[in-house]
Hints:
Blueprint: H1 3-6, H2 27-42, E1 46-51, H3 57-69, E2 74-79, H4 87-98, H5 103-106, H6 114-131, E3 135-140, H7 148-157, E4 168-174, H8 177-183, H9 186-189, E5 192-198, H10 203-216, H11 228-238, H12 242-259, H13 266-279
Parallel strand pairs: 1-4, 1-5, 2-3, 3-4
Amino acid sequence: MSYYKILGFEKEPFSTSPDPDFFYFTQGHQSALTNVLIELRLRRGLSVILGDVGTGKTTLSRKLIQSLKERGDFIVNYVLDPSFDNEHVFLTSMARNFGIFSGAEALSFGGVSVLDLKEALEKFLYEKCVVENKTVVLIIDEAQKLNELSMEMLRVILNYETNENKLLQLVLLGQIELHAKILGIPNFLDRISFKYVLNPLGLKETREMIQFRIQQAGYQSSGRIFYDDAIHRIHEVSRGYPRKITMLCHRALKSLVMKRKWAVDESVVRELVEEDMHAGWLTKIHP
Length: 287
């Protein structure tokens, strides 16, 4: 039997997989999602969301994709690792993922020039957006990995437009270093219609996130499983980063099973922190 079932859960409450159903919406996440959806519906072009590692960018992108797929008029392509060596590789990836070429044509991408790929992409976007009245969306996670050539290619593609709106809707989610890359390309910066920075959670949001995930996992006991002193310590150690909160809560629940306890208090969290410090995984913690 899984540890979480022993404790009264129907599902694992603190998995690190980006499951949209377990995504706790802070005011910041909700604002980012709502604004991006508005930008996409209006076909404004480019939206950028920045945040440190573990602030929920990937899970937010999955929630965005889930929202778009519930509508019948969006065509969505999702890129998880945009490490493209050159323009041809980048455009080939887009053509393949959007299904721009037939199966037979796709086998001969090596013989298709960059110009041919650009023309095929522009024709595809026009056909879908203008003729079929659909909205084509490209979502790029880990966008800080984009090199200068790829950024320039995206800038060029954003020039594909009608008199009313952009043909391609682009959403970039990346770590803070993406900001410096964008600033180095003024013509790219000018095209951003919406930009947002995700910040770590406060203590209140940390408590709400833990409670939300407990409820989503179908916790069946009437008693509390995380005491306030434990949540306070979790927030201090994690500094409010959702991924760190999730991982620490997961370890705390496993500790309950091993110690045959039924609630996480500050001592449980303190022991986990001390283990990490002793092993060299933590070098400094908050008092």
